[in-house]
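Support case: user asked for a sample of complex input and structure output to validate their parser. Sending the pair below.
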Amino acid sequence: DIVMTQTPLSLPVTPGEPASISCRSSQSLLYSNGYNFLDWYLQKPGQSPQLLIYLGSNRASGVPDRFSGRGSGTDFTLKISRVEAEDVGIYYCMQALQTPLTFGGGTRVMIK
Amino acid sequence: QAQLVQSGAEVKKPGASVKVSCRASGYTFTGHFMHWVRQAPGQGLEWMGRINPNSGGTDYVQKFQGRVTVTRDTSISTSYMELSRLRSDDTAVYYCARDSHGMDVWGQGTAVTVSS
């Protein structure tokens, strides 16, 4: 199984400041079609998870452009250009290259 | 717009089975895989398996092999996840999620509590 490792575990942020979450996979997620099969999800308190980024760098419908996904192969980053109060929650990366699909352990983003 | 509505909370005894439903609306049910993901209290997300609603083909994570069965009824655009031989550590919220360039639509979750 592909192991997904996220850092940091928790991330205190100041509104208006940037934030960054790292995700590393135990195997390359780059497929022969040139796409990285890596998605990012946000689970806000008391809610179901929601899709932020798919295939490494594509924003899902309705996701603000302050969110961006970068990286390739085994190293990926989710960046928030300017954190807003509504961005608090737990962020998960997930590999979709092969079954079983696997999630990272999550990064809790909180306001300082 | 696409929506997934799940069945209500369940309380089960150890050894029993639970069957959670996920009714899809607002899109072509057979056009997208459906995933099942669970989240134990205070824990992260765990993928359990998926179904191709068109063919009925399934994939499951090894740890649930033999205990989990995902099915679908295309006539009512509904997927089901049945987990048998329940244990206390199966206590979790169970989600269904549509696959469309990532899991782009999620159900509201179904809380399953396993307690004697």
